[in-house]
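re: that chain from earlier
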Amino acid sequence: MIIIMVSHGWRVHSDHRVRIYQESEGNLAIFLDMKEFGDPAPLLIDLTEQSASITSTPHLVEKIEVTLTKEIVITWNAEPFQLSVTEGIYEDSE
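^ sequence. v structure.
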């Protein structure tokens, strides 16, 4: 489990490596650090001293827990890490 301190005394816990970008107001953009899929959509969270508002959740997130002790626990979906390309998705019908 990776733990990263962010603004307003909050801590982000992630079960996979992430990149976190934060604005001075406390807004976070959290990206799963993976090369296979390029740059997937970010998890967006607005933080204040009293609250954490999740404004956008990408499909790679399985679960987000926000605790009273200012902890955000992110569990990423394990399925994308087990994918392999074996067949084409699109086939010409002609």
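The longest strand covers residues 27-32.
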